[in-house]
Design a protein that fits this description.
The chain is an alpha+beta fold. It contains five helices and four strands, in the order E-H-H-E-H-H-E-E-H. It folds into two domains: 56 residues, no CATH class; 51 residues, no CATH class.
Length: 125
């Protein structure tokens, strides 16, 4: 899936930018900042795989997906294949009033039956 603005470092500036972009309340931004402090102070685990060569400054910690879509046909093929494997399109057509797809932390697809929408139902994450 295409993504935009993939930072290669995890900084306080990025945490603040992400929180503002998502419209989060100040308490959530403060929580993210506390978590970043814990992350920065935590040593790599010494059990399991040898992570000593892992360059944490060269990882993409977050990828902003492209804008969400409301038409099944507009979803990237990779996501549609996954949904077909899970038989979700069939379930959506037969039994569900709506369906949402989330990739990483972002909703990329959302649909709701017109008859349900007309009753005032909203589909939120």
């Amino acid at each position: 899936m295409k993504a935009k603005g993939i930072p290669r470092t995890l900084t306080r500036e990025f945490v603040e930018e992400l929180s503002v972009e998502k419209g989060e309340p100040s308490w959530m931004r403060a929580h993210r900042e506390r978590c970043l402090t814990v992350f920065e102070k935590s040593p790599l685990p010494r059990f399991g795989l040898d992570l000593s060569q892992l360059d944490l400054s060269d990882l993409a910690y977050y990828a902003r997906p492209v804008e969400p879509v409301t038409r099944w046909e507009d979803l990237p093929d990779e996501i549609r294949r996954t949904f077909h494997t899970l038989r979700l399109p069939e379930a959506e057509q037969k039994a569900l009033a709506g369906l949402g797809a989330q990739v990483d932390s972002e909703v990329v697809y959302r649909s709701l039956l017109d008859e349900v929408r007309a009753q005032g139902v909203i589909f939120a994450s």
